[in-house]
Batch of 2 targets.
Target 1
Amino acid sequence: MVVEAYRGWARPYLERLARPFLRWNPDRLSALALGLAVAAGAVAAVVRWTSPLWFLPVSALVLLAGLFDVLDGQVARATARTSRRGDFLDHVLDRYADIAVVLGFAASGFAEPVLALLALASLLLTSYMGTQAQAVGEGRLYAGLLGRADRLLVLAAAAFLEFDWSLPWPWAPAEPWARFHLGGIEFTVIDVAFAYFVIAGQWTAFARARRTYRALAGR
């Protein structure tokens, strides 16, 4: 996980951000993160019938969803309310959040449906391999190129670029829908993000599966 490497550096800032929520139940923060992710997916889907300018709130909602997804665990640890039940609920809600956001982006008209489907499958497979390692007693795996924080940041950046390039800036593409061309095929920024999810997601899933398999062989 690329962003995970900076968790130690970010911990003091996360502790400050968590202070106003110390009286909250961590499960409520997990539910709030899910609600923000669903809202991001819904607004992204609305882009198809409105304007790419709506990608700006989509980017903000994705970032907020990721923030509260981190704060629920931070609050649980700070208030000694960590539990297996809360950990399970957090993982369940995270998967529904992933589905909502990706489907919203897929419905926006700025993504190839097949590529979005492959990206979603890769994200779910990556998360499955991490939790499956925990299920067989090897502990939760976060290693790899594509952790959850990584993909939320990538999606937020892709949404912001779609918003920014929809404005009449000098650097904006002449064609409002196509951003990149390769072999006669047109790609948007979101397509590029989804293609990265497919490649990095499959690599991460394979690496986690191999690591767990080798660990079990050593028992």
Target 2
Amino acid sequence: MAANLSIAVPSKGRLKDQASELFERAGIGLRKSGHERGYRGALAGLDGVEVVYLSAAEIVHQLKAGGVHLGVTGEDLIRETLGDVDGSVEFLRPLGFGRADVVVAVPDCWIDVGGMADLEDVAAQFARAHGRRLRVATKYMNLTRRFFAGHGVTGYRIVESVGATEATPAAGTAELIVDITTTGTTLRANNLKVLEDGLILKSQAHLFASRVASWDASATKLRDAILTRLKP
């Protein structure tokens, strides 16, 4: 029987494990179809739902394109990737896992830099001394640009991070970073501090609904059934 609703869940890592635990507790456990390493499945006890296993980043793209009705992924990825968040997805429910803060962090030795207002002054001094802009290492280029613009900080350029972002200042490839943190331990280990007003986003995993997917009465009924089971 063809599925009436599709839901994308993370295919690997801690998000996958936590999503599996969440659905299991709700009595609609994730069940893979066919081979254990396959990428399709179903929800136990809820007919008409197809589970699609994708990377957390690909889930965002599928929600945007309407390729799936629902998706479990991080708010940080949604807000970084989608230009029109409210027009693309609906926030159905925070899920209580995958928590991480997206923050602006600078070296501990920048004693006089406590907040975003100090960064523009530092950028001007840095440009006079070194003839170039401050480099900000990050995987969150869009969130960074919007946040910095909101604080009137312009004297910087983004260096896209492909590895351990927190290590870039010590390596000399950036002066400061925008990255995710849960406890701050890794930042402190790399002699970095979060600016007083440097919290860009408090993120966690959410259940999202695509606004452009094909919603009929059956899909809507299944969505409501899933929401009822996934009570906070």
